[in-house]
Amino acid sequence: MSVFQVCCYESGKHGHGQRASPKRLLQINENQVILRENVGQQRYVCLSYCWGESAQITKTTKETIKDHQRNIPWHQLNATFQDAITVCRRLDVSYLWIDSLCILRDSIADWTEQAAQMANIYANAYLTIAATNSSDASGGCFRQTNDKYMSKLSPGYKDTYVRHELPDFPLMSREYQIRESPDWPLLSRGWAYQEMPLSRRVLHFCAQEVVWVCRFSQKSESMDNDQDFTSEDKWSGRAYLYVPYGIL
What we know:
This protein has helices at 3-13, 65-70, 79-91, 99-102, 108-115, 118-124, 190-198; strands spanning 24-28, 33-37, 44-48, 95-97, 127-130, 201-205, 210-214, 217-220, 227-228. The chain is an alpha/beta fold. It has a nine-stranded mixed beta sheet with strand order 2-1-4-3-5-6-7-8-9, sandwiched between helices. β1 and β2 form a beta hairpin. α6 (118-124) crosses α7. The longest helix has 13 residues, at 79-91. The N and C termini lie close together (9 Å). Pfam families: HET. Residues 44-195 form the Heterokaryon incompatibility domain. This is Heterokaryon incompatibility domain-containing protein.
């Protein structure tokens, strides 16, 4: 059982099941991405990312909404959006919320309405994908890991490997603080201060590894940035059972 599966199981035991969906979501089909409205109660994922130059962001506007409701061409999507869609497909989640595509960017009324729901949007999401290492939407989520960083082997392997220690990832808790670092530009942004603590689960795509954070645990591919949250932590009053068989 993976960390992801254990977290979902533990959340389900404590009543953190399916919740209300946002006004608009991207429906991810096998070969299409379609903007849908009022889809009812659906399991969905949120994307947290840095915009960068806003002119380069794929947006939904009054002019483009009809086209987006038919299909959003893959080549028009920013790299970070494409990677988030790929993750959703891997997780078998059919709906994704991205602010620039799910809010009408040239409608003050729609923006005001959706901004008021932002806390609920992230709190109700099944998972938040964080493009933590990208400074803009063209950076994507996925990285080629440097060879000097080699993941630890499971106990029982007779061979010994030496590798560089990975950078310390900021410990996430309800006492979340803005982190200024070129390694994770997303965490230096003010809105991340709001999105991360609200999210039930966050999957951080960093420069050298993926880091998983939920109310029970923080786990990393390297195991260097692992932390269990117990009754003394701010995330939860419940202990967490960690099964070290992978993040996803």
